[in-house]
Amino acid sequence: MTSKKDVYDQLNRPLRDLRISVTDRCNFRCTYCMPAELFGPDYPFLKKDELLSFEEIERLTKIFVQSLGVKKIRITGGEPLMRSNLPDLLSKISSIDGIEDIAMTTNGSLLPKYAKTLKEAGLHRVSISLDSLNDDVFGRINGKGVSVQTVLDGIDAAHEAGLLVKINMVVKRGMNEDEIIPMAKFFREKGHILRFIEFMDVGNTNKWRFDDVYPKKQIIQDIHEVMPLEPIDPNYTGEVASRYRYKNSEVEIGVISSVSDAFCSTCNRARISAKGTLYTCLFASNGHDLRTPIRANDTDEQLSSLLETIWFHRTDQYSVERSDVTIKKHKIEMSHIGG
Ligand code: SAM
Ligand code: SF4
Ligand code: SF4
Questions:
Q1: Which residues are [4Fe-4S] cluster 2-binding (predicted)?
Q2: I want to staple 228 with a disulfide (CB 3.0 to 4.6 A). Which of 12, 180, 247, 275 is the partner?
Q3: Tens digits of residue pLDDT in 108-126
Q4: H-helix or E-strand containing 232?
Q5: Can you identify the CATH homologous superfamily of domain 17-337?
């Protein structure tokens, strides 16, 4: 293995955070991510041998951590818990020296089954997605009529298993902005950090429009009128959420404002899709195929040098440059890259 070094891109950003998508499949069909009319029974999902194997993911992760300065790993998808034997991957990853944080983003539906095993395998944290507390609204958003209680059971299972829990709520104008206050009250009571995510133009299938974005400023104003908030400092450089605390309370919320308030200048994240393509931006059109060199038996040194070169040449700052022109370009879908 080559020795550890910090790699900086063309905007002087180091590489710290690696997000790994383990499947492009999902048991939900969220309208803003995998609209049911496009991701139907005939959708060409990846076949098993097209996915990176756990051994290939482990090998790449080791190189990212031990040679390129990555400290945080996030497992995502599609729905990561749809990948068979996922705890085995967590066991492999958690035994790699040098990782400070291992997290997963999930829709929560399978957590009652897996939370305990995931915790035992070394997972630290979960971000669980829930966009409404109203069954009709949530059932429509997730495209499968899944109940709110299903996700709440997942949240409880994760908490009881000892995993740190955050809740992710995508806010889209006309879809669920009325749910901001009920969600804020509910999770303030429960003591879980709720993070609001502006609806983003990831991929080309979710019919994104600027007008559908319910911006950070509005979200904060809505909550502040009911439950006064005060801003708090980021935990670390590159944290994506702007943090706020309810006054006279320890409970906090966050807002991820990729559209209204870009945070590209500190973006230290790389993403690997389920088939092993590396993307240096969530809104990228093209990635770098890592599966071919891995399966061609390239050495760790060769792979490390390839990754270093890719990061060195990185200039991405899509959210700073977003315009009527950029939103029309071909972009990788969220279910492939994983958020
Ligand atoms: N299936 C898992 C889940 O839903 O948590 C993990 C993958 S999902 C693609 C990751 C995160 O991206 C989720 O919190 C989801 O709500 C969010 N997301 C998906 N499409 C989005 C969009 N167009 N804009 C903003 N967030 C989005
Ligand atoms: Fe599935 Fe997550 Fe996308 Fe919803 S947001 S369709 S749960 S991958
Ligand atoms: Fe990072 Fe791209 Fe998002 Fe900017 S738009 S914060 S570069 S992923």
A1: 264, 267, 281
A2: 247
A3: 999 999 999 999 999 999 9
A4: strand 229-232
A5: Aldolase class I (3.20.20.70)
